[in-house]
Design goal:
This protein has 61 residues and is mostly helical. It has a domain at 9-50. It is 70% helix and 0% strand. The longest helix is centred in the N-terminal third of the chain and has 25 residues, at 3-27.
Length: 61
């Protein structure tokens, strides 16, 4: 995945989570709070996601 696209997607998840919290908490909308938790989870997975293992040419010998 392109690095710029990944960063934009992570930032979008963060701001979407914040927007869901801001809208859901005062109104009492449990749906928006759950949606905010979901987007926050996606944000943290995007930041600390899977680490890729890089192989060098000499490892295959």
């Amino acid at each position: 995945m392109n690095v710029i696209f990944r960063v934009v997607l992570i930032v979008a998840c963060f701001f979407t989570a914040v927007a869901c919290y801001v809208f859901g908490v005062p109104v009492g909308g449990i749906f928006f709070v759950i949606l905010g938790v979901t987007f926050e989870g996606l944000f943290w997975v995007g930041i600390f996601g899977k680490k890729r293992k890089y192989q060098t040419r000499n490892q295959n010998r």
